[in-house]
Amino acid sequence: LLWFWDCRAGRREKPDYHEFCRGAAFCPDDLRRMQSPDLRAETDRVPMEEALQVSDRDYRRRAVMELLNVENPLAYLPVLRRALANEDGETSHYASVAIMELRRKMQQQLDEAQTRWRKAPRDAEASAAWEGCLYAAVQTDLYDEDTRRRLLARYCALSDRLLRAPRPAEDFVHHRIQVELQQKRYARAQQLCTRYLTLYPESEQAVRDEITVCVHTKNGAALQAFLGTLRSRPVLLTPQTLAWVRAFRKEEFCEQRS
Predict the structure, then answer these.
(1) Cα gap 159→162, rounded to integer Å
(2) How far apart are CA 168 and CA 205, in angstroms?
(3) I need a surface site. Which of 50, 63, 141, 189 has the fewest CB within 10 A?
(4) Which residues of 10-30 are buried (b: 16+ CB within 10 A; e: fewer)?
(5) Nearest Cα to 138, choosing from 79, 74, 217?
(6) DSSP 8-state secondary structure symbol assigned to residue 34
């Protein structure tokens, strides 16, 4: 009987997803923990972090420099940031050199993509390459705040242009939603999600973005209404996305059992 009334009380409460917030700040990392981890990425990253703790300083230095040769060195930027504070001065210096090299490579990619786009601004591949480079740049902390602000302005100007197309590329919409969330422009992010779901009803990423926006804005009613439409949508969800759906529909399962 007590369990029944607990379910009734839970249904009356308006879900605001406070468990994903610390104070007033939303923590996307907590939302990502609901999904199964990328085991390959994690097992690669952990040894690199452990390498900074070994007593052999030469080994530490080699490990830091080898990060430049991995498939996605930007994924290890937090490791390099921690290596900057390593007690071994040489390891710290190598980490600084590695970060500078990452910044140089990123700038080279930006310059090449921009040059290509300026020569053919209507070319789809050139536009996608330029948009992708700018998006990657504003997503990292390779640059200082002033540089990131300038890159963000350039990205938004290009994105506005690309999104004026009747059917912009899916990546263009998804990237802009992520940027709007980071800038706390939630109304704009929700508008883009609505358009995304309309243009690409079969897109799993559109579903994930809609869930993310609802949680960011603590809009439990909108999220439950959206989850109720999933069965009628022509989209195939992978286990990672289904983990979110099942977690956020717990109160519905509780109601059915009662």
Answers:
(1) 5
(2) 15
(3) 50
(4) eeeeebebeebeeeeebeeee
(5) 74
(6) T
Place of tokens 């607990």: 6
pLDDT one-digit tens code per residue, 54-109: 556 677 667 777 777 777 778 778 878 887 776 677 778 878 888 898 999 999 99
| 49 in Cβ contact with 79 (< 8 Å) | yes
**Residue from 117, 60, 52, 61 nearest 79 by CA:** 52
Burial class for 232, CB neighbours closer than 10 Å (0-12, 13-18, 19+): exposed
**CB 82, CB 52: distance < 8 Å:** yes
The CA distance from 197 to 199, in Å, is 6
For residue 214, which amino acid is it? C
In the numeric block, which tokens belong to residue 183?
Answer: 């800038």
Spatial separation of the C-alpha atoms in residues 96 and 98, rounded to whole Å: 5
